[in-house]
Amino acid sequence: MAELTLSKKIGYGLGHVLNDLCASMWFTYLLLFFHQVLYFDNNYSGVILLIGQVADGISTTLVGGLCDKPDNFWLCRRYGQKKSWHLIGTVCVLVSFPFIFLPCLGCSKSDEWAQLIYYSAFAVIFQFGWASVQISHLALIPALTSCQNERTGLTAIRYSMTVVSNISVYLVAWIFFGMSKEAMLSSADEESFRNIMLVVIGIGTCTSLAFHLIVEEPVAEVLSGYEEINGETVQRELVAPMGIKDWFKEPQFYQIAGVYMSTRLFVNLSQAYIPLYLQESLQLHSKYVAIVPLVMFSSSFVTSGFMKVLNNKAGRKISYSLGAVVGLAAAGWVYYGGDEHGKADEFFKHYGIFFVAALFGAAGSAVLITSLSLTAELIGSNTESSAFVYGAMSFTDKVSNGVAVMAIQHYIPCIKCCAECKWYFRDVLFYATGGAVLLGIMFLATLAPFAVGKRWRDREVGVSTGGNRLVAWV
Fold it and tell me: Of 11, 186, 296, 328, which residue has the fewest beta carbons closer than 10 angstroms?
């Protein structure tokens, strides 16, 4: 397999920008929009996010299996299996996402349960499309290159684009929220959310088009057992295939799924609840809802540039551990630095919060890139089922995040009823994100004695080449 050109690497990174832009708004501003602008019930807001996450989780599993299965559908034959799913997902995202950040069309005065059905329907379509793009895009990594370092490089480029996308959303949000004369967001900010959404859709459409024009999906090569070239024998690698049932028999499949789930919990919960923490707990001006996340993802972007080198020099397990320690420091600083007692609170509100945002961003970048690299390493040469593996990993992520958010939303107290109630979101950031990163360390510890990618089924065969490759002399 030829080395990837720079244009193809960049083109690959552009393929997930629409998803990244929409995900940034979904996780950072969805709850804020329903809380502060639409004045939705806390539980209903959580239900919409939960339904979306469950739909995403189910879709990832289905799309993961279908994306790996050969299909004679004309689009798949002419355009490629994975790119076809990417195209279908892109269309679904474009036709559904705009309605999530607009008042209920024709039903804005209806009961909340009716609006709940309206928003949930669009959330399901959006999440199906989002899952289709995500899984097909991830599954292209092993298909585009067989080199582990190049796969890590593509993962880093992919995450760098994620960070750039998030930064773009927050810069746009800063522009529109900065125009507001009010310190707190309200129903008057409907137009601001609409304008941010339109910019997101415009940029995402252009980058998705560029991806489809630049990147070509390679045709999978079927390796024969024997091949003779000029009467000489050559060494070939015969990859033992991994079906869905085979993956369920692999302990590392569950261990790495646990690491990935914990990582996503840390990243997504911090992203979802920092805006509410800024508005409700610290009571900062609405522009900080854009500035603080901007600092967070700027730190992520800087960190992502070092992750390929760190993974190569220190290894994936040490890289993840270092990121997890930084994440614990960020969660601890939120709790003890933002305490409601003493003058330290004023220092934290004006200066400390930016250091915390930088720590959250650096930690999120480190653990997410490393967990994705661990997943690619687990797949190894078994690219025939790569989409299923990424789908299964994403399923644990989506469902766990949906359940976690629903639980957090259910226990939100009456913020105005007591002086200490406003610190609920501080506690969420401390216990939820801190607990998630601790859980990730625990799952990683179970991997410590093992080489990632070595198949459990090969333990008695004595294969010495990484567990999933057999060497034949032909």
Answer: 186
pLDDT in tens, 146-178: 777 787 788 778 878 887 898 899 999 999 887
Give 4-22 pLDDT, tens digit per residue. Answer: 788 888 999 999 999 999 9
Contact 55, 124 (CB under 8 A): yes
CA dihedral 299, 436, 268, 85 (to 10 degrees): 110
**Residues in the chain, overall count:** 474
> In this predicted model, what pLDDT tens digit does every residue of 276-335 receive, in sequence order?
899 888 888 888 899 999 999 889 888 887 887 888 888 888 999 999 999 999 999 998
Structure tokens at 261: 């789930």
β-pair partners for 232: 229
- Closest of 20, 190, 18 to residue 101, by C-alpha: 190
Report how far Cα 279 is from the mean position of its chain's Cα atoms: 24
Taking alpha carbons only, the member of 81, 17, 92, 29 closest to residue 56 is: 92
Burial classification of residue 144, based on how many CB atoms lie within 10 Å of its CB (0-12 exposed, 13-18 middle, 19 or more buried): buried
Instruction: Give the pair of three-digit tokens for residue 377.
Output: 């390493």
Contact 312, 327 (CB under 8 A): no
* Rounded Cα gap, residues 203 and 61, in angstroms: 28
For the cut 70, the answer to whether the pLDDT of residue 458 exceeds it is no
DSSP summary character for residue 179: T
- Longest CA pairwise span in the chain (Å): 85
Three-state secondary-structure class, residue 230: coil
Q: What pLDDT does residue 72 have?
A: 60
Q: Could you read off the pLDDT of 50-67 as tens digits, one per residue?
A: 999 899 888 877 877 776
Give dist(CA 393, CA 383) in Å, integer.
15
Q: Is the CA virtual torsion 466, 219, 250, 240 positive or negative?
A: negative
pTM score, two decimals? 0.77
